[in-house]
Amino acid sequence: MTRSTESPTQPGQVAFTAVGVKKHYPGVKALDGVDLEGYAGSVLGVCGANGAGKSTFAKLLAGVETPTDGEITVAGYPHAVRNAAEAEQAGVLMMHQEPLIIDDFTVGENVWLYKLREGKDIRPWATKTDTNSAQTREVLHGVGLGHLSTRQLARDLGPGQRQMLSLSRAAVATHKIMILDETTASTSEEHFNDILELVDREKKAGTSIIFVSHRLNEVFAMCDRIAVLRNGKLVKVLNAADSNPDEITTLMIGQALKALDRPPRVQTSSAPVLEVRDLVGGTARGVSFDVNHGEIVGLYGLVGSGRSSVARTITGQRKAASGSIKLDGTEISLPTPGSAVSKHIAYVTEDRRLEGFVKDFDNGENMSLVVLPKMSRIGVVRPAVERKRVRELIGEYQVKGGTSTYTRTLSGGNQQKVVVAKWLETDPDFVVLDEPTKGIDVGARANIYEIIHRLAGRGKGVLVVSSEAEELLSLCHRILVMRNGVIAAEFDPEEADTDDLIRTALTHTD
Fold it and tell me: Which UniProt keywords apply (predicted)?
């Protein structure tokens, strides 16, 4: 197979060097003084619990983010990498967790996407890329997609096929460093074998590969060395052959932390507010659980475990393939988000920027968006009523900014409070919060926790979906751990710690 690469380094030589790399966000030290090297013809695994800084490091190496301090240099490139364009020039190819696929392009066009992006095909004197060539079909065969037609639209592909299609570009894109950032989260075991073969070809060609993952069985199958990050710091770099999953897990976790400051349980009814039985939807398969009135239940799992599929299916964001959902003892159907709202079920999305608020709306417009009928008379919104209620919400939820401040200009924490306020204004009986503190600072986290406590205190049922074990241990009355689309275990936070949750979620325990 033709492979496009440029590698001034020989196997075993240094391909990139990170020195004193720091990355700080408001209230968060994502990376704090990391020194790390990658070698040509070798695979470096980067592991850590959620929030450890592993994906941040990958983004810095790829130039997607700029270090707050320190620098990353690539062998053969004249200066430190400062942005994505320079990283590409230096020979860094990044494969993201969410694959970059153009739905309206064919499979063949997606293979050659980076070549098409160069604009050469629009020049009259340039040789047009043949996206239906024998080389294209060979490239697809190399990632387990040889059965696909190159003229098929990419929109018809499943998640695993989309990821493999993205990975196929490694065969036609010039590079000497390849980053795989959680790229196996949506792939099957069969496709993982294709990834192993791809990585083996890259190693033989002298590529330095960085594999960012929480799946320790895959890390040990693929990597030569393993770097463990914890709380933004590099804990240790080990040879994979001299280590094991239990050692890496212990390094990732550090000292196990017990739950603290959990709110008291306030159960206002003996019957559950929500009963889920044999639910199938997305990557969730056969999930059953209850949530009681006044109870905060945590749903923990790693990327691809099915936790978000459950959250979206029980709130009408995704239609269930099978199974049943009961609200206060009555079976309900939730074909759309609107049907969930009408039944007093609220969903706070994990992607607030894409789904949480309207970017061209101000705080007032976003906060009142779902409850405009309450503020209207014969179909006409009463501005005075709307403004008064929004001012009350801004004070109640401690949102920085007035009613006319555009939500998009706020910090992540204040944006999240706007989103939470919007949905809780519907007065739901059951609330799902998907990664409610993702990307927000410590102060905003405390505000969100207080809101969740108040909800439970009023007898509402609350499901908190999170990838942070410590958060759920301190917040919830019960924790369900998902793995491979099913609930693998249930824990009482009084008797569990982070070690229990993470070990249960890691696929190497299967």
Answer: ATP-binding, Nucleotide-binding, Repeat, Transport
- Whether residue 247 is found in the same domain as residue 306: no
In this structure, the answer to whether residues 183 and 92 fall within a common structural domain is: yes
How far is it, in rounded angstroms, from Cα 473 to Cα 422?
A: 27
- Are 481 and 498 in contact by the 8 Å Cβ rule? The answer is no
Q: Does 498 reside within a domain?
A: yes
Judgement on whether residues 89 and 236 belong to the same structural domain of the protein: yes
328 occurs within a structural domain:
yes
Distance of CA 34 to the CA centre of its chain: 23
Candidates 176, 197, 198, 195; CA nearest to 39 is 176
Residue 182 and residue 94 in one domain: yes
Same-domain check for residues 338 and 320: yes
Q: Which of 400, 43, 33 is nearest to 199 (CA)?
A: 43
Which residues touch 276 (CB under 8 Å, ≥6 apart)?
Answer: 287, 288, 289, 290, 310, 314, 323, 324, 325, 326
pTM for this model (two decimals): 0.61
221 lies in the same domain as 79: yes
Per-residue pLDDT of the chain (510 residues; tens, 9 = 90+): 444 445 445 778 999 999 999 998 765 688 999 999 999 999 999 998 766 788 889 999 999 999 999 999 999 999 999 898 899 899 999 998 778 889 999 999 999 888 766 555 445 555 567 788 889 999 999 888 989 999 999 988 877 788 889 999 999 888 999 999 888 766 666 678 888 989 999 999 999 999 998 778 889 999 999 999 988 899 999 999 999 988 888 888 775 544 446 667 766 667 899 999 999 998 899 999 999 999 999 999 887 788 989 999 999 999 899 999 999 999 999 999 889 999 999 999 888 877 888 888 988 888 888 887 777 777 777 778 878 888 888 888 888 778 888 888 877 778 888 999 899 988 899 999 998 887 675 567 778 888 899 899 899 999 999 888 888 998 999 999 999 899 999 999 999 998 899 889 886 544
**Are 60 and 180 within one domain?**
yes
| DSSP-derived pairing of the beta strands 92-95 and 177-181 | parallel
- Number of structural domains (the chain) is 3
User: Which pair of structure tokens corresponds to residue 288?
Assistant: 């059953």
Q: Is 443 among the domain residues?
A: yes
Residue tagged 């993702």 (tokens): 438
- Tell me, yes or no, whether 96 and 185 share the same domain: yes
For tokens 């998907």, the residue is: 434
Query: In this structure, is residue 156 part of a structural domain?
Result: no
Going by DSSP bridges, is the β-strand pair 233-239/272-281 parallel, antiparallel, or unpaired? unpaired
- Tell me how crowded residue 460 is: count the other CB atoms within 10 A of its CB: 25
Residues sharing a CB contact under 8 Å with residue 61, sequence separation 6 or more, in sequence order: 16, 18, 72, 81, 87, 92, 94, 177, 179, 210
Distance CA 488, CA 497 (A): 16
